[in-house]
Amino acid sequence: MPEALPAKADHVDVLIVGAGPAGLMLANWLSRFDMKTRIVDKRGTKIISGQADGLQCRTLEIFDSFGFGHRAWRESNRMLEVCFWNPDRDGVLRRSDRIADTISGISRFQLAVLHQGRIERFLLDSIKEHSDITVERGVMPTAFEFDESKAANFADYPIVVTLRTLSDEEATPAQRQQHYRNADGTQSVISDGLFQSNLVADDTDDLIRMAKDNNHAHPVETVKAKFMVGCDGAHSWVRHQLGFKLEGDSTDYIWGVLDIIPITNFPDIRYRCVVHSANFGSLMVIPRENKLVRLYIQLQVTQHAQNRDSADRSWITPEIILQSAQRIMHPHKIDYTYCDWWTAYRIGQRVGDHFSLQERVFLAGDAVHTHSPKAGQGMNVSMQDTYNLGWKIAHVVKGYSEGSILRTYQSERRRVAQDLIDFDYRLSRLFSTRSAKDTTDKGVSMEELKNTMERGSEFTSGFGVNYGTSVLVAKEGDSVEQGDGTEVAANLSQRVVSKPHLATKIGIGKCIPSFKVLNQSDARPWHLQELLRSNGRWRIIVFPGQLTMPQNMQRMQRLGDQLGSPNSFIRQYTPYSHPIDSLIEVLTVHAGPRTAVELLDLPEAFHPFDEKMGWDYWKVFVDDESHHEGHGQAYVHYGIDPNHGAAVIVRPDQYVSWVGEVDDYDDMARFFSGFMRQQVVSKSDIESRPATSSTV
Amino acid sequence: MPEALPAKADHVDVLIVGAGPAGLMLANWLSRFDMKTRIVDKRGTKIISGQADGLQCRTLEIFDSFGFGHRAWRESNRMLEVCFWNPDRDGVLRRSDRIADTISGISRFQLAVLHQGRIERFLLDSIKEHSDITVERGVMPTAFEFDESKAANFADYPIVVTLRTLSDEEATPAQRQQHYRNADGTQSVISDGLFQSNLVADDTDDLIRMAKDNNHAHPVETVKAKFMVGCDGAHSWVRHQLGFKLEGDSTDYIWGVLDIIPITNFPDIRYRCVVHSANFGSLMVIPRENKLVRLYIQLQVTQHAQNRDSADRSWITPEIILQSAQRIMHPHKIDYTYCDWWTAYRIGQRVGDHFSLQERVFLAGDAVHTHSPKAGQGMNVSMQDTYNLGWKIAHVVKGYSEGSILRTYQSERRRVAQDLIDFDYRLSRLFSTRSAKDTTDKGVSMEELKNTMERGSEFTSGFGVNYGTSVLVAKEGDSVEQGDGTEVAANLSQRVVSKPHLATKIGIGKCIPSFKVLNQSDARPWHLQELLRSNGRWRIIVFPGQLTMPQNMQRMQRLGDQLGSPNSFIRQYTPYSHPIDSLIEVLTVHAGPRTAVELLDLPEAFHPFDEKMGWDYWKVFVDDESHHEGHGQAYVHYGIDPNHGAAVIVRPDQYVSWVGEVDDYDDMARFFSGFMRQQVVSKSDIESRPATSSTV
Questions:
Q1: Which of A167, A286, B16, B214 is surrounded by the most beta carbons within 10 Å?
Q2: Which residues on chain A place their C-beta less than 8 Å from a C-beta of chain B?
Q3: Organism's domain of life (chains A, B) (predicted)?
């Protein structure tokens, strides 16, 4: 694409296109590594209301691993129970059932709701705290070149992108503003979300055209990048450049969304509700923060049949949506004075055919999966895409890992997207079809809907994700079958397989569950996941069992000797100038009792010494009764025998790679040898390096 | 005191002198009321290290009621266990015992440690969020006049104070800086805390003298105030102006304090420890945030006898203090490279003879009580002084309450100070005396120390406070005896006495304990105290028992009719323009089950309706099993019969005023009539006022 000569040029490690949740999560990850990162977004401002709002437990855990989970948890509204309403035999709407909204014990968090603007705020604050990365708003890419000959060398820059800064008018979406008539006759202005809805053509092409006309007024620059990630939404510019496709279908179901402070006598308005009316479609109630309630309301398109063939959306107004809600909720009244936001969308499910171009350009979030919003998954899965990708890119850029780990991104995340789409298809059909009058009726039975939701709870909490075997996940089976079809297995000589019977309740390829353990040195309880901060470290978590049993202490001694030796794989893979725990951190959780063990009796590898800071008191923990917060029963919950123990390797994103014997140093070493790079240091370097740790 | 003509004059509701924890807590309270408040401090900068650090559970609860408890809780180090070390029969130091540091179940928080500078930061942020009050630093009062003839009229300004802005040099304390020799031979600079220690003469007089010399250079102004509060420390200028005295004694015991990152093989360095050596005195270990440990170390003054008679403190250095610690901890090693702060102090216990001048000028914090720091009480009791005082001043200034409530400040807080001093005296003696060799020895027995600490746990957690009967606390007994000697009883005709048997585990005059209850409208668990935000509201908490019992529902109906009537005392005391729940809020906790009750079946007084916001879903709660956080068992823990119920009146500072029958509207009305002021409104105002609520 010929362009005017660029005004300046820049070289970056990673260029992120799009500053929604997926793009910001990626920038947030990369802010933890000292890397040259840029992130651009064509919109001139951050969103302040509406959009996505559902937060999985797993997403809250990820936020917590970055240090801002508490902000989301405090501000959000919790969703604890789902109430089902459907017509009784006389056709009158009744509460037919209640179920818990989150599986008991699955997480220290529960499903919650908070609008996307706050999530983006937390991510922005976190990025700012850890780096000088700033979002460049009103900036969009207009041309893309890829030099395949440079793709194999990860020190090289195969990507060239032209960026253009837009004018203020260009960067402001053409949002419809309308005067809405309140019940008391006054008027107020409500912004709609249709400009981002899938009912409206995206305005990217218009923006590019406008920007070209402005060539002289606004700066243009060329950026050369090692990696580029398109987090630029359903109408992704990056995806179009790559020529990749979304595969799937749309339905004819149209749903409206209202964010209102409800004035109603419906008794369950602060519970999540699924309401099926006899004849007017269905509706979902999502109670939100700040007294708001979001209603997802099925619109009776047949009433507006004259418009169906065209793209005309003018018939969709807040009043039309409200009237649908009123019909569905009858005989209960519902009205509002304050409307915070509204939109409408057509249900559809689509997944990208490819997630990456030669592991140099990646797509994430809505750019590669679109679906209905009602399961509250979209923002979560999008952020989890880049949470999966971020550390892999960073470890390759930093030279810690081989580039082969990058192939696992598509293998792992495209499979998740496919599973999501399947789930959403089933759920959407159940929501959009009228409820059955009796067992002979072909409408949806409430029992089927309830069962689907209950079975889907692990999935909607974010814990259904189970990454297949690969260079990063040491388990039985075939990596092509367990993923999306991409080959990501380790070389045979380096392949390691876990011994899952040693920790029967830890799923290899799944996120490590979290239970409370106590710090050996001060008896403070921590959720295990709180120890697994997202700072790029791999962890070897040693569960040595009861250390009062001599054979268990002997195995610890053996492992400690090997890990602490100057030739250990940890030392080989950790850059000379970095603390010994900065790439692979060793944590211990023994089976207690706490008071029977003294920290300093364990080998130094488990609590490194530093000349200026003394011993590290934040590496050894115990599964024991706490003074004020009960007993975490971690060994029971992980299915580990306290007489025997186990060791677990956990990825920097908290997914489990390997389970094996406490003292199986060789398998640990073999696992890491499949993708880690030996750091080049002289012999004298190794001998003189102090065993320092960097915990704060 | 003759002065140059003031450059300008100002009228304020409250002038706060001193911006330490006590002064900032007061400003923070007042920031919740729209009042004219100024706060001045002679120091030019906020402290950034050292000073006080202990946080009672009760203090964390108060922080949480202002919305920043989580900040302190996240940053602080928890103290969960105390280890006792003393010589064994052979004179070798051994761990002799462990006890929990906080009584189980007493609070949702535990004892914690975080340095004063962070606490002040949280208070400053909170003040800024809620008001435009800013601390005027480098400003000190230099003259004070009090017009007694104006003291009886609370709309008048009896106080006149001259304020002077200091130069930068004047506002910087003469802090000693010294080069300290590290173990490796390098040098570093450590600031000491002696300038604020009681071993140094305060520099206030010097500052005043210097300021006078600077008359022309720096602005002077006159402030007229309704109230003034002296939070200006042990050498309080305000106290001197009033001619009040601190009563009590100093001892000869001198203790040093080191904040260091320890390099040690002492195994319990991250537990709180009390270490008694055989011959070299005792030491306390306080593990802190950011890897720091504070050591309180008894200094062997006799070794420096040549200096004892003079005020010479030059012999006290970090090295002297460290050497004492090393002797005490022998045979364990202790050393450090990094020292964050150090100081030394002489143990003494003193209490002010008066806490107020005609309820117009008050003293709080170190200005009226000084004691040793080792029980971790100082900062807590100081902030709790002004937490007690703030809402009382605000309610009088706002015209909600009679001035009579202000007398309870001295009655309640001077008694607390006396109790604190008694406790500290006993504890200090036990710490400073050598441990007994056997039962015939007159040293301190470890058993006695451990018992004193265990018995003191309720006190040191902050829950020992039990305010006596008064116009604000409706219980049996004599107000003079139960307080500090001040007469604060209600008039006989308005005196109400609680029925404690209805809630056997709620102490009248004590802080209401907190247990989890569920919101009726969304099943979310809340700690009861989380519902009692510090926003100036009184609460009537109705525990109606099981509402499935018809008689209990009938009593709720009766109470609801009376509270909701246009003539109810709530309406009489609430200013016309304010929401109905803004001064006295009605909360309900029924005994369950949750699913057997519908919110809208309860009278409107328990969930007020607003035309724009709909029903209030945040007033009715239930004592029932939660989905993920267990069963709070609130009725069991409060000692309330679920077949019968009780009602509780709670002060704006979470202390319990009254316990009575659910439907005892008359006693509730009589209680409030003892000090509340009827708001002047027309009859038509009352009839037309909507029943709005203001919960957010």
A1: B16
A2: 70, 74, 77-78, 80-81, 98, 100-102, 104-105, 110, 261-265, 267, 269-271, 287, 290-291, 337-338, 519, 521-524, 595, 598-600, 611-614, 617, 626-628, 696
A3: Eukaryota
